[in-house]
Write a structure and sequence with these properties.
There is one protein chain. By secondary structure, this protein is mainly alpha-helical. The chain has 6 helices and no strands. Helix 2 packs antiparallel against helix 3, helix 2 runs parallel beside helix 5 and helix 4 runs parallel beside helix 6. The radius of gyration is 17 Å and the shape is globular. The chain starts with a helix and ends with a helix.
Amino acid sequence: MGVLGNVLRGRRDDAELGKGLWRRAHDRFQRGLDRYHQVLEGVDDDALYAELVVIADALSDLLPRVRAVCMTCQRRSPSDGFEVPGELAPVHRALSKAGNALATTAEAAAMLSLAVGPVPVGALSVQRRAASVLEQVELAESYVEA
């Protein structure tokens, strides 16, 4: 994507997500996802890579869901700052936890890729952390639907 594409995407994001709290929550999730994929690129073990790709696909499927939650929140309570609106505090908390869990998922994958020798339990630690990401995204969605 060229410079023009980045400008257009930025304008669309500004319109849909605002420039405040909800944009920040979305962008943090996206950065965590990008970091996970960067870690994935450095994995040399084919078996481990195959396990981590499945997790990467599942995490990537969450980004449109996070975006939808953030867009809904921006429509309900537009934000150009970083103050959390009281009625949407549980949504923001769940999105923050999802972003944190995604960062620790990428960290766990990085640690696994640095392991020397065969990993006895495979990507189980990464799977557990990824499950936490899914749980928090589902929680955020449930708060928005309520």
